[in-house]
Amino acid sequence: MTSFLASHTSPLIRKLESIFPLSEGERSALESLPIQVANLGPDQDIVRIGERPSRCFLIQDGFTCSYKITGEGTRQILNFHIAGDIPDLQSLHLSVLDHSISTITPCTVGFIPHEALHDLCGRYYRITSALWRETLVDAAVFREWIVNNGRREALSAMAHLLCELVVRLQAVGLAQDHRCDLPLTQSDLADALGVSTVHTNRVLQDLRGAGLITLKERTLTVLDWEGLKTAGDFDPLYLHLEPGSEAA
Amino acid sequence: MTSFLASHTSPLIRKLESIFPLSEGERSALESLPIQVANLGPDQDIVRIGERPSRCFLIQDGFTCSYKITGEGTRQILNFHIAGDIPDLQSLHLSVLDHSISTITPCTVGFIPHEALHDLCGRYYRITSALWRETLVDAAVFREWIVNNGRREALSAMAHLLCELVVRLQAVGLAQDHRCDLPLTQSDLADALGVSTVHTNRVLQDLRGAGLITLKERTLTVLDWEGLKTAGDFDPLYLHLEPGSEAA
DNA sequence: CGGATCGTTGAGTTGTATCAAGACGGGTGG
DNA sequence: CCACCCGTCTTGATACAACTCAACGATCCG
After folding, report:
1. How far apart are the first and last CA of chain B?
2. What is the pLDDT of residues A185-220, one digit of tens each?
3. Of the ranges A8-12, B43-47, B235-239, which one carries the lowest mean pLDDT score?
4. In the predicted model, is pLDDT for residue B245 greater than 90?
5. Does B180 lie in the same domain as B89?
């Protein structure tokens, strides 16, 4: 189930290269990061709240989500993570995890020891900056989700979430022409928006009825991108994408 | 209204020292940061969404908040900031601001050029780590606010928010015995929780009626700390405070 | 003293939750 | 290969949390 391999850092290298061109030394340091690849099943916790991890993981394939469970037992999803993301990069400087992260689909992930990352950051300030920036973009997404959960009604919030997912998937080549594989259940979407699954179902029907999307058999197609953006009050500014990777 | 002064970085130095003891070099580098102090009036934007700032600001005194305005014109407050915070530290690596920050009370802030911070970080990896950590704690607070807005009812969310404010104020010496100055209007609280001001008013009355708090003339007193924590489903883990600064 | 801001209250409305039940579909074991 | 099961999606009926609108009281400040 688990194997040691060098040079499984390509999703990370690609991401950093979209921010600045890597030097020889930077590239080879990244390529020689020790990384332990694992294949995980669906709906399986990767790390849990309260733990003190000694490594981060890089998603190579699949969907994961960060979440918390309230005292009343309801789940709130905090973010979805896709290929190229390092969902628990924060654990590099926050010793205790304040949320859990679980797979949604089966996933391939690569574990990288904190020690190796600290070593890398100590030597290359630009890589530190780039990794720091990654965590700052995550924070920007959290901010937008506060707005989504606090000030948008369910229909608008759903439209916004779908816009975000399409743009992010497009940025890593997992969506084309506003169409993508979206392996989320209505219950996952409900827990991301903080609404019930019943209401999620009705909201999706409304979006379909308005001719904005189709969503079946885990495939999302945006039929009317401008309409969906308007319905969701969506402005991709907060995703801080580099020019070029943005959606039309 | 604005003056140049050296050595106005003491709130920052105190904060970093709570994480690790500073070396001679680190301390003197921090003390010699160029900082431009300004006194600002209440309800005044410090930075605005869309701007590309070339400096960060450190709060020396007063309350500020980060916020966004939705397409429908409603405000969502994303976080409150108090003395010692650097609310737009993220602008060091994200060129465009994705939200605005405004004063609530009159404030004293110190502006620090990005250039000086980059220079400092390039020379001292531990300071980089500490500043990075600050932004990670902010992100952890955003995560908790997603839960607050998504999965808690207004009464519970209000209790949670008040718990957070008391603990954070206590950590910087601005609250004692679960009592503090809280210069927020009900409208501010409403915009933080994503509810209407009318409902905020009623929720506060419920908390008073339950004997959990008093709140008048801008002074919050928690009468029943355990009760408020329970009502708000509050666990301070996500604030990542150092042991010692935590509330009882 | 008048105006502005903030807090409070009541009445009616809307968005969303809950409960309950059935439909659909894919996988598994007999 | 069929029967069954389980997770997911869907629908209807009812209940509740929170919103809006409107008005009024309290304070503070110029």
Report:
1. 40
2. 999 999 999 999 999 999 999 999 999 999 998 999
3. A8-12
4. no
5. no
Q: Are B11 and B98 contained in the same domain?
A: yes
The verdict on residue B99 lying in a domain is yes
Please check whether residues A174 and A77 belong to one and the same domain. Answer: no
Q: Is the pTM of this model over 0.85?
A: yes
- Residue A35, domain member (yes or no): yes
Helix (H) or strand (E) holding A234: none
Shared domain for A101 and A185, answered yes or no, is no
Name the band, by pLDDT with cuts 50, 70 and 90, for residue B8: confident
Q: Which nucleotide across the nucleic acid strands is nearest to B74, CA versus C1'?
A: D19
> The domain spanning residue B168 has which CATH number?
1.10.10.10
Q: How confident is the model at residue A246 (pLDDT cuts 50, 70, 90)?
A: low
Tell me, what CATH number does A26's domain have? Answer: 2.60.120.10
Give A11-18 contacts, CB < 8 A, sequence gap 24+: A11/A58, A11/A59, A11/A60, A11/A83, A11/A84, A11/A172, A12/A58, A12/A84, A12/A86, A14/A84, A15/A84, A15/A134, A16/A127, A16/A130, A18/A242, A18/A244, A18/A245
Q: pLDDT (tens digit, 9 = 90+) per residue, B211-234? A: 999 999 899 999 999 999 999 999
How many Cα atoms within 13 Å fall on the side-chain side of residue A77? 22
> Does any domain span residue B176?
yes
Alpha helices, H only, B57-196: 114-123, 125-151, 154-171, 186-193
User: Which chain B residue has its CA at the smallest distance from A152's CA?
Assistant: B70
Contacts of B71 in chain A (CB under 8 A): 233
d(CA B125, CA A69): 35
DSSP one-letter code for A28: H
- Determine what percent of chain A is predicted with pLDDT higher than 70: 95
Å between B199 CA and D20 C1'? 11
Taking CA A144 as the corner, what is the angle to CA A103 and CA B182, rounded to the nearest 5 degrees? Answer: 115
Classify residue A229: in a domain, yes or no: yes
| Distance CA B197 to C1' D16 in A | 19
Classify burial at B159, counting beta carbons within 10 Å of its beta carbon; exposed 0-12, middle 13-18, buried 19 or more: buried
* Pair B86, B52 in one domain: yes
Q: How many domains does chain A have?
A: 2
Domain of residue A85: give its range: 2-129
Pick the closest to residue B78 from A78, A149, A236 (CA basis).
A149
End-of-domain residue from the set A70, A96, A129? A129
pLDDT confidence of residue A48: 98
Q: Do B12 and B121 sit in the same domain of this protein?
A: yes
Distance CA A35, CA B176 (A): 48
For B233, the closest of A71, A75, A143 (CB atoms) is A71
